[in-house]
Amino acid sequence: QEKFDIGYDIYFSGNSWSVQLAKEFEAEAEKHKDTVEVAYTESELKADKQVSNIEDMITKGVDAIILTPISPTAVIPVLKKAEAKGIKVVLLASSIKSDDYDALVTVDDVDFGKAGAEWLAEKLGGKGKIIALNGISGISASDDRWTGAKEIFDAHPDIEVISVVDAGWDYAKAKVAVSNLLAANPEIDGVWSQGGSMTLGAIDAFEAAQRPLVPMTGEDNNGYLKRWAALEADGFTSVAPSKPTWLGSEALLVAIDLLEGKTVEKNKIYDVPMITADNLGEFKRDDLSDSFWANTRLSDEQVRATFQD
Amino acid sequence: MPRAFPVSGRPKEWRPPMFEGSLRSNLLTSLPALALSALLIILTAYMSPNFLSDSNLTNLSSRLLPIGLVALGEAMVLFAGRIDLSVGAIMSLATAIMALTSASLGWLAIPLALGAGLVCGVVTACGVNFLRINPLVMSLATAAIVKGVTMLLLPSPGGEVDYAFYDMLFGAERLLSAPLIMSLIAFIVIAVVMNWTRLGRSIYAFGSDPRAAFANGISSLKIDLVVFGMSGMLAAAAGIVLSIRILSGDPLIGESYTLDAVSAAILGGVALQGGRGNAIGVFFAALALVLINNTFNLLDIDTSFQNIAKGLIFILALVLFMRGKAEEH
Amino acid sequence: MALPAILTNAKPAAATWRALGLLAILLIVLFVFSGRVSMVQVMDNARQAAPLGLIALGQALILLMGRLDLSVGATAGLANVVLAASFAGNMDNMATALAITVFFGLLVGLANGILVVVLRIPAFLATLATSLVIAGAILVYTGGSPGGSIPAGFRVITEGWLFGILPWSVVIWTACSLILLVFVHYSLKGRKMLLSGANARAAQRNGIAADRMVIFSFVLASFMATLGGILLSSITGMASIGIADTYTVDSIAAAVIGGALFSGGVFLPAGVAAGSLILFFLQSLLYVLSLPPAARFVLQGSIIVIALALSNFKKDR
Amino acid sequence: MASLKPANHSPTLIAVSGLSKSFGRNIVLQDVSFSLGRGEVLALVGENGAGKSTLMNILSGNLSHDAGDIRLKDATYKPSSPADAARNGVAIAHQETAVMPDLTVAENVFFGREPRNALGMIRQRQLHSDFTQLAASLGFDLDGRKLGRHLSAAERQLVEIAGAISAKPDILILDEPTASLSSEAAHSVIRLMEQLKAQGTSIIFISHRMGEIMEAADRVVVLKDGALTLAAARGEFSEDDLIHAMVGRKLENIFPARPARENAPVRFSVRGGTNENLPEIGFAVRRGEVLGIAGLEGQGQKPLADALCGMAPFRSGTIELDGEALKLKSPAAAIAAGIASIPDDRKHDGLALSLPIRLNMSLFAITERAKGGFLPLAYERDFVEGARERFSIRSTDMEQPVGELSGGNQQKVVFARWLAHEPKLLVLYEPTKGVDVQSKSEIYHLVDELSQKGVSVILISSDLMELIGLSDRILALYEGRITGEIARSEFSEEKIMRYAAGLPGKRQAEGMEAAHV
Ligand SMILES: Nc1ncnc2c1ncn2[C@@H]1O[C@H](COP(=O)(O)OP(=O)(O)OP(=O)(O)O)[C@@H](O)[C@H]1O
Ligand SMILES: Nc1ncnc2c1ncn2[C@@H]1O[C@H](COP(=O)(O)OP(=O)(O)OP(=O)(O)O)[C@@H](O)[C@H]1O
Ligand SMILES: [Mg+2]
Ligand SMILES: [Mg+2]
């Protein structure tokens, strides 16, 4: 029997989340190696390169294309072409501004932003001065999460966002930024952060400045979960919304269903999984690397192979 | 009539060039890029049946247009012995302007974006000329400012560019597509201007030795305005094409094009020190850059090795073509 | 009037004073806006600027030779990845980890030097190519997710303060600046570098092995970039990909604000330090004023123009 | 102060009055006034750094002046750029500096005046045939298709001159037009000047060669330290007057009196030295001897100088210094062996123009005294200050960048470099190109002084006066071979030129090695 040819575009491999997303896909593909044959391309977070990659997949004549759209519009024309050739298209972890696709598998980043913000607003009793740590302006995940968070904060008139900073999902940048903000502001009551490493940086900046820790939001990467657990005894509180990397494996399953002619739900948008003080223990893995992300379908062996310490 | 006298006994190291004039000696600089792209075409066509399909060739020319335009502008700056590292930022700015204004202004968005590119080029030219700031640094400064402005205008990718533009530019799937024709026109026009007009000769002369050129009556301000202005406009044109290709604006999309543009110009035989090189060579070098990615994808080369492979090809090309060209003031 | 001979050699150039002046102005502005600039805060910024400072020193050495090194950012990033991997979070590995990291750094410098000198490829392109290869190699080696970590014991070099007032990283940075200052301006080899940098052909003709000086400077610059990468790793405590990419452009900007010339023959470590600090305080100013990230680029571009416009102010025709 | 009487002359074309110019605090021109009539030749004379080039650069729009007034054809003239000057009929031939390396000779000559078709495109063929015509009419032996970067110094100079003439200017300015030319070529340029003058062109030329000035100038203007010290018409001045006005005193002996030294032992010899550019060369120099090497431009002088200093080593042959065989594989090896050399192209091969005088001058002085790799700075300062005084190098202080000095003073810096340690052999290649009489004389006496101390000198020069005045013996170089030898007692310009033109010398090649000692 003919195997299905599938093109998978790795949108980025510059941070551990994007790497793990691709690994989840690869692991699933390995399980179905008798039915699918995958050709990989790599877009390096460049929308135009992604367009070219998809064009080349069409040229090669694949049966299905799985991609994480870097821009909400860039791939529309080329996906139309794919559709015209009867190629199935699955969007993974990010959507586009048209319905020229067959399935979407994701968690909403706006909801992600809201989830952390709601927790923080509640924790502060709807009142206080906070700072926000964003990823990179111009990248939709970062902007969408902030949009969601801002909506919540705007609804709480007594919460004042005193500074919004881009720290590139980066520990070091976040630490520098927060150090500076601490020097400039005698009162900071909470930190809304959209990335685990940035929250780590913020914690270290607070400690370096010998200021008591305040409620902060984080994300589900293992390094952060470990630190959070260690600080719980000192009264540190946090919450970790998650964009699970297992979406990668889910995308392949959906693609196979489509190719086999099964009907699938077009927009599969999962709820944002939340790690809270209550279930922290279930996700935190002291025996695994700091870099790994807790919401995964990878086996421990696979995680160890991907992120060696 | 004074009689002829021997000035040099017998020039030993030098023989007359194969062709006449500096024009021909410039044309020869295109050969390596021509060879490289020919090699890639033959290799890929041999190994992949889809390579020569109409749709793939159309795709290639669509990709050639933006990198070709921006590399062409960069080459003009390099001909004059300057360098422009702001082209990528200008491309992003142009995509932002298109995304924000094409809905309301329609076609007028295009001259607006081109004008913005021109202004950026003029700013760089003025810094280089009046403030005597090294072009590399001045263009980096322009790039930073332009990037900031772009991010103020359009903080994240988005906005919308009308689909009609897309149909117009990329709609047809045939070999002689609009992007290919536009690339050819741009390159031929610039090649003619550079080689057969006084302006072109002045740009080469200025790049060759600015002091000597000044002494021969060239105004450095005029040269700077022309080359940086052109480079800004061509970068903006590339940005317009890109915004149509992605149907939106993106404040970061141009970044990687700066080094691509410089690489294409250099691989195309343009000397960093100025005065030498030809638009034709740049055309083939830009083509080679486009072909490399296509080749990687069509031949299924492992993605993680693509970057190393590209770096090594780059080094190999440098070793083959640039050997002995190290700058020494 | 007449300085002792030993001082004329190191007399701060006009460009150094200009850079220091700009830095002072920036500090005053910062003070005015934030209302509280303490010595500790200044030192804390200096501490974090140290990686850039070291990398920019290396860049300045290359500029001294009339070349440009576009691989310093990649080299620092390489140091970050290699150091974290070979440390593996264990302080016992320190000697080996440092040795391996420095070894790779020197290797990059040697490769650059050979491409530029032996194969005579323009430095701009040769170093661009090596940076591409380094970036690719890091991706292949790490698969996109680098492992390892820097043990807390080692992080003292960026987190510890000497006598509680001087961060160790500032001490290291100052020491490197001084050593290079003395080396370039007081040693025979440094003098030969100056001459080769200003006119390689004349230097060669006058018996200086100018080519060897160029290779040497590339190795030294990569070494400085590696040191910068090590300090950076000590700050971050872990490895991440592309973390030092912006340092390439920033190092050029810092060196040039500090008075380095593309035509070679100039080396002003104090100016370079001022340039690095200016770039860093600019960042602080943005946080304090809570300006959008976009403003950072506008300000940074403007300050480069201002710094250089000042230095060219009085040239007449 | 002498001023020019306009009476017995053709109508005034350009009149300069009260012109001043300074660079920073350095006053370069001070209240200079003179005038020039149509169809006249004016020679501008002065020491290095007197301000000649600056004055001409002002007239040609390369520099602007601070005060004073220039009237051209009775209108105020203040050119804003070289292009502006050209529009006003003023053209300048710089001292070989303005040839654009990546354009061909023809493109250089007609730059900005290329023939074009209706579309504004340059007609390449026409351009080159125009050039062939022009070159023939000027009597220049130049290949129009050659790129500027491949030209020799003399060819560059001719390109400059041809370019300026082809603009058909009213006023032609020639800045040291003959400095790089052999004397025969220089004579032709002088004849060309006479021809242009006859056609009504006014010419201002700068030269350090007294013979040319006496021969060609209708008037002279002498500058000293930026001020006018003499302005006179032909017949009103003598060579001594000029020198007096330039230097401020009489120069007794430009050349040192040198005793014959025929019996000294051989110090340095080359036998059968060959490389790509030298077919075969052999000669020997005695201890303390000054060996002149004469030849027309491009007969192998440069390859010979390069081989001797190790830049382009001999591929085969034997070299001996003080009886020991030697390989001159690199400049470093040559210097280590005690061979010092002064290049002809000081700007590219001799100096780091952006660095201070001190750094340029002191390298060798301090090298051997360095302790543990570090420099003896006090010694360096004393050495540099001493040399500055001794050579009267005109500069603000020892930290002034060498690039700001005039050509002659730059040359002195190159010379001074070798003073700290006497070399065994000193190779001079056009050592006084563009150097004024005063400095020339100083350099000659210095060479003599060194040779008295036993330093052997090889003097490669196109200046016959210099060769005759300074050498103990002269060899003629033709097509990369030694074609003749002339003993001091037989020196004459005519004889040297005969040999240099490749005509058979007194002794033939077989006996050469013995004969040349
Ligand atoms: N751009 C400049 N900046 C500073 N000083 C300058 C500049 N140009 C010339 N000078 C100085 O002006 C003086 C006159 O220089 P100029 O070149 O006119 O001399 P010159 O008479 O042509 O000498 P030479 O015979 O060596 O050619 C010199 O002292 C020189 O150092
Ligand atoms: N960058 C500079 N800064 C200061 N002065 C300069 C600079 N460049 C050139 N000059 C001065 O300008 C004058 C003219 O330069 P140019 O190269 O034409 O020298 P020249 O005097 O005609 O030639 P030569 O040095 O062979 O006598 C020189 O006297 C030199 O001192
Ligand atoms: Mg002069
Ligand atoms: Mg001169």
UniProtKB/TrEMBL annotation, chain B:
Which ranges does the record mark as transmembrane? Answer: 27-48, 60-80, 87-107, 113-131, 136-155, 175-196, 225-246, 279-299, 305-322
A cellular component term, taken from the record's GO annotations: plasma membrane
Topological category with respect to the lipid bilayer: Multi-pass membrane protein
Subcellular locations according to the entry: Cell membrane
Record key words, sorted: Cell membrane, Membrane, Transmembrane, Transmembrane helix
The record ties this protein, via Pfam families, to: BPD_transp_2 (PF02653)
For this chain, one GO molecular function annotation is:
transmembrane transporter activity
Supply the InterPro entries for this chain. ABC_transp_permease
User: Which protein are we looking at?
Assistant: ABC transporter permease
Organism the protein comes from: Pseudohoeflea suaedae
TrEMBL record, chain C:
Q: What InterPro entries has UniProt attached to this entry?
A: ABC_transp_permease
Task: Supply the alphabetized keyword list.
Answer: Cell inner membrane, Cell membrane, Membrane, Transmembrane, Transmembrane helix, Transport
- Where is the chain membrane-spanning? 15-37, 49-68, 94-116, 123-141, 161-188, 209-232, 252-282, 294-313
Q: Name one GO cellular component term.
A: plasma membrane
Superkingdom is: Bacteria
The cellular location(s) given in this protein's UniProt record come to: Cell membrane
Pfam (any one): BPD_transp_2
GO MF annotation terms: transmembrane transporter activity
- Keyword Nucleus listed? The answer is no
Membrane topology according to the record: Multi-pass membrane protein
Functional summary from the UniProt entry: Part of the ABC transporter complex LsrABCD involved in autoinducer 2 (AI-2) import. Probably responsible for the translocation of the substrate across the membrane.
Q: How does it assemble?
A: The complex is composed of two ATP-binding proteins (LsrA), two transmembrane proteins (LsrC and LsrD) and a solute-binding protein (LsrB).
Q: What is this protein called?
A: Autoinducer 2 import system permease protein LsrD
Origin organism is Pseudohoeflea suaedae
Automatic annotation (TrEMBL), chain D:
Q: Name one Pfam family in it.
A: ABC_tran
* This protein's UniProt keywords: ATP-binding, Membrane, Nucleotide-binding, Repeat, Sugar transport, Transport
Cleaved signal peptide residues: none
Sample GO molecular function, one term = ATP hydrolysis activity
Protein name as it appears in the record: Sugar ABC transporter ATP-binding protein
- PROSITE patterns linked: ABC_TRANSPORTER_1, ABC_TRANSPORTER_2
The record ties this protein, via InterPro entries, to:
AAA+_ATPase (IPR003593), ABC_carbohydrate_import_ATPase (IPR050107), ABC_transporter-like_ATP-bd (IPR003439), ABC_transporter-like_CS (IPR017871), P-loop_NTPase (IPR027417)
Pinpoint the ABC transporter domain residues: 14-250, 249-504
Q: Which PANTHER family match?
A: CARBOHYDRATE TRANSPORT ATP-BINDING PROTEIN MG119-RELATED, GALACTOFURANOSE TRANSPORTER ATP-BINDING PROTEIN YTFR
Name the domain of life this protein comes from.
Bacteria
Q: Which source organism?
A: Pseudohoeflea suaedae
Name the family.
Belongs to the ABC transporter superfamily.
Q: Which SUPFAM superfamilies match?
A: P-loop containing nucleoside triphosphate hydrolases
